[in-house]
Records
---
Amino acid sequence: MSIAPKEYKRVTVKSLSEMKAHAKKIAMLTAYDYTMAKIVDGSGIDVILVGDSASNVMAGHETTLPLTLDQMIYHASSVIRAIKRALVVVDLPFGTYQGNSKSALASAIRIMKESGGHAVKMEGGSEIKESIVRILSAGIPIMGHLGLTPQSIYKFGTYTVRAKEEEEAQKLKEDAKLLEKLGCFALVLEKIPAKLAEEVAKDLTIPVIGIGAGGGVDGQVLVTHDMLGMTHEFHPRFLRRYLDLYTEMSDAFERYIEDVKSGDFPNEKEQY
Ligand code: KIV
């Protein structure tokens, strides 16, 4: 018998697990600031990711690597102040959890204490096992991230589709199982073949959220600035643009400049 899913006043890690159990898809978007987070949360999104894509989108870096823990805490605390409903997951930045599980725990604790985030996300599988175990032992929920993991971009060399070859696909499947076994509450799969992603989602009981991983998973995530069409140089196949804000904002800015230069703004009603 299928049980009707509850409408969640506040989304928790438990809600996400129930959503998977009831075959209800999970919608996740990024936010890095108060104003955007307020709009995204008010629209009814399930999960907000304070992604390290802030490094690209907010700071203009080519990769996610330069983002610091202090910067991530600043972004996440701005988002948290806006939220009424969504679960807020915060990326652990590059260099704050790889290699040393004690400093990984210290980084995760700083995120939770100083930003008020609800969970952390970490890229990688067996190679970061010790850090995952230590962070989970402190009661901090972890979302895993496999496939294209942008923090390892210099190892891959390109942002092309991952795990097309059998060996890499096998390692990804093993890592996914391991993350579930260790206690991660969900998993992001980025830019891998749809068939492989579907297989992983079917094999796991925790929710699998895809980006460029097809429709056979339990939910989807996009970078908000990409789906709004603000980052107009970026055209991956998986990206659906819901607006062309780059053009709309440019038009608005041009009209404002014209109005100021011509003396049309402000008019009689727009002054004291
Ligand atoms: O940082 C980010 O925005 C991400 C998503 C692409 C999943 O990790």
---
Amino acid sequence: MTDLTHQPAWAKLQALASEIKDAHMRDWFAADPSRAEKMQAEACGLFVDYSKNRVNDEVMAALFDLAKAQGVEHHREAMFGGKAINTTENRAVLHTALRNFSGEPVMVDGEDVMPEVLATLEKIKAFTASVHSGEHKGYTGKAVKQIVAIGIGGSFLGPKIMTEALKPHTHHAVKVHFVANVDGCHIHDVLASVDHEETLVVMSSKSFSTQETLQNTLTAKAWFLGQGGKQEDIAKHFVAVSSNVKAATEFGIAEENIFPMWDWVGGRYSLWSAIGLPISLALGFDNFKGLLEGAHDMDKHFRDAPFESNLPVILAVLGVWYRNFFDAQSHVMLPYYHYLRGLPAYVQQLDMESNGKQVTQNGDVVDWQTGPIIWGSEGTNGQHSFHQLIHQGTSVIPADFMLPLNVPNQNDTHHAMLASNCFGQTQALMQGKTFDECYADLSDKGLDEDARNALAQHKTMPGNKPSNTILFDSLTPQTLGALVAMYEHKVFVQGVIWQVNSFDQWGVELGKVLGNQVLDGIQGKAESESFDASTQHLIRRFRNANAPS
Ligand code: F6P
């Protein structure tokens, strides 16, 4: 396979980047009134305006050529077809099977996985109904009113952020609390707020070996027993979601209370599996299914649409353009919708844990940039903190703005203001404000010439800052499913172009191992001499600060 930087399209893009580096989007919009209409695409209820990017038709064509040359179509079919594209773990990557309502089989190692996928969906549906109806009762006969969902990473972010995003669709039978961090404050505060007799703990861990989740579950178990529950009552108040059924049963979770998941579902791609049980409990199964249906629609769009109108491909190649030809170090997510405020954190794991890699599938160290830093927060809050740097800083920071056109129970003025800020920001980033415009604005400030020039210099905004604007009528479960799947496939396409394995995460293993060794040092179970001097010093200070008085 030709390496990325030896592809003819790469050389073409290098030439184009040099050719357009002094061009300004302001001038492109002035020269071509049809630019906005030409650079937009729509699918699955999502409208994407990508006209405020530093691209022209020639650049987009070369970017699509690069994606084709890198084999995106071939790899896409390999993924949907259940091939072991996660090469270092020899696993298929089939989060798409979890939402496959086509009726078609999905073969993994010669076996159709759809029967067990659909059976698990039925198990989620039945369990949700039994909890919501009050049929599932605690050991004192009380219905379940509180859910404590324990998990971290992909076993936390998806459930929490989807539930938060679909708050208007909440099912009021139960209240779901999410706990992730091993910091005891979190689990303590949650447990202090619920009654153990009406509380169900959902422990989610694909590996069933994650320190934080195991410890939080042990604490929840001790709390339950301390409140008066008995060992034999655990089965009524604890369920687990895991691919490691053996470890879960050894932990004390009744086998009938274990919701299965599979090795071919990556943690950061798992909200569509039983990891999404808390979503179903919070929103009702029909809304959880709506999420999956929306994602399935996006899967079909991603598979069928030509690159030129393919939302994930368009977003992916634009990201490659800035990452590899403008040295952009990051990409900012700006959801202009309070309920979507968690989306930047969700895409952080999805994108950075997938493409934060330095070695190709063949094991060669890359000599090109790969995954960017993903960050962001809800609009309009960011305008009053970090937007200054995006407008007048020295970095190219491509931005994804997103906004629902309608929101439930909202004062029209509030929503009109939110939309006006969203659109105003994309316009300001694109057009900026020239020195001459700033100088003219200062005509009536009583400044002498030097002061006027100096201040105009400080007020000048270069503009030409790229952004995409993603609009949708309202955030329904279906729309949210399509939105998340769009980003999943964007990350996939970029991983293929950068030739990395987007589906393993070896980079997190060392920290886990060393963390456990340091824990032994802190707890006095191991000499700390094996650590570096700094870590030894840190351990000593911690032990001194916590020495029994
Ligand atoms: O961060 C590493 C990681 O393995 C993530 O990929 C995963 O989502 C998270 O930890 C939790 O893993 P588990 O679901 O196995 O507890």
---
Amino acid sequence: MAQLKYKIATIGSHSGLQIFKGAHDEGFKTIAICRKGSERPYKMFNAADEIISIDSYKDFPKIQNELIKNNAIVIPHGSFVTYMGYEKVEKLKVLYYGNKKILKWESDRHLERQWLKNAGLKVPMLFAKPKDIDGLVIVKFMGAEGGKGYFLAKNEKDFNRKIKPYKLRKYVIQEYIIGVPLFIHYFYSSLTNEIEIMGCDIRYESNVDSLGRISARDQIVLPKIDPSYVIVGNIPVVVRESFLPRLIEMGEKVVEVSKKLAPPGLFGPFCLETILTPEEEIFVFEISARIVAGTNPFIEGSPYTWLKYNKPMSTGRRIALEIKNAIKMNQLKRVLG
Ligand code: AMP
């Protein structure tokens, strides 16, 4: 087993359990890099063959040499980019799965938008200044705090009132699309040039997803009840089958454009974050160029991966399989960034 020479490593958080399980299923040993105090799940679920504890994710570069000595291949996930920043990730010397150069394009909301538009996808309108607001908008902050503090506004006056507590934070003002938020998980193999749909999820966010449990009459009398979008978990979704051809095409276009933006382009797992309207329009408000936590309900595989593989195939396992195939073909470099 050629893959035994390498170990799969990632930060113990986000989709770590899935990545480690997938690595074990494909015959790799695993290393979890955990923030002190967060080691327990990686022991409890037999996920990590080794654990390296660090005080903060920012210290990751300090333990690189240990990983290099172990022939570890690092798998990036959400916690990586969010807590380390793409500039630090770009400088890593350890073997790294994926194209690092694409991270800049997903980390900057303006570059990301350009990418999606070049791929011919519909994106929500952006408002340059609060005085331009002419309908319902969502105001989003940049940075690592997720959807905390995001707010809705209907005009400039409403915006000015709600932005007060966040004066120093960078934000974007985006058209609010009313519809169903749907997160589509893809995998693109640069070894076979094939795109796969791995699954779909909807997120469960606090408090926006619990507001529907309070009647409008009670909401009105509550002193302050702004929605927030702090993610709590992910729920699997199987989409209407007639949407699938469009979803497949969307993924293909994003990959095609990425090849020009940051050669050799996006490969491995990625996710389009969309909203489907009653008119069946699909707006894409974000792209994640790596595994997303929405794949976590599918450790046993999704209906789509079951159709394709006829055995449990999570996104974490698909990554390990791709690395294993690359090793077998003597082309590991093609999946490293
Ligand atoms: P984000 O931080 O961009 O992933 O957004 C967090 C959440 O806000 C999403 O999961 C959606 O529920 C919601 N959201 C983001 N952008 C929009 C939009 N343009 N219209 C409606 N809802 C949105």
---
Amino acid sequence: MTELPLSGRKVLVTAGPTYEDIDPVRYLANRSSGKMGFAIADAAAAAGAEVQLVAGPTNCQQQHAGIVRSDVRSALQMLDAVLEKLQGVDVFIACAAVADYRPARLASEKIKKSGTRMQLELVRNPDILATVAALPQPPMTVGFAAETCQVEAHARRKLQQKNIHLIAANCVAGGQGFDRCDNRLLLLYADGRQQDLGLQSKSALADELIQVIATELRAGLLATATP
Ligand code: CTP
């Protein structure tokens, strides 16, 4: 049998948005369909990897029967699920659009309207990708950066601040990339290389990204910004 590019590798993927509940009927969320993350999980499975997928609320369905999927709702639940599944993982691909903040308090009853304004206090959610990258022996870490301007500069800053191996940047100005079947990705590597994957279907981009990851793993090119 021919060896597949990710045979014997374990891949953990996050996908979709997170929902941060305000009260029993309302939540805060990011605009994310989950399509890119699911395409990546499918591509990794097709490349022979053992794939675990931690998904926020989404209508997407994975195509490969072998993918082990866990559904979560909030960023805190996503972090717990990721940390629980990290054992033996070679690559962590953070594709989820995690809400950066959650309401400071979850109201147990539906909040009734009163004045003409209301204030909602938010607290910062943990950064799942940065948490994984800061572990003593992290897997290869791959992040995404969805930006509306200065795509490359913002993505490079995130690559460095989170101390990850690779970031896939895309422009979401004017709704580009959301809920569509195509996207344009620019890959930035911690060692300064970059590669424009151009505009393609999300499944073709996912296949290319998985090939890139397999090549990096084989070459052991796992440099991050800090030695
Ligand atoms: N990410 C994460 N946990 C978070 C926030 C983001 O794992 N709490 C991951 C995403 O899955 C993605 C990358 O980090 O891979 C996005 O980086 P980030 O700087 O958090 O992007 P934004 O949330 O869009 O940041 P900003 O609003 O500052 O642009």
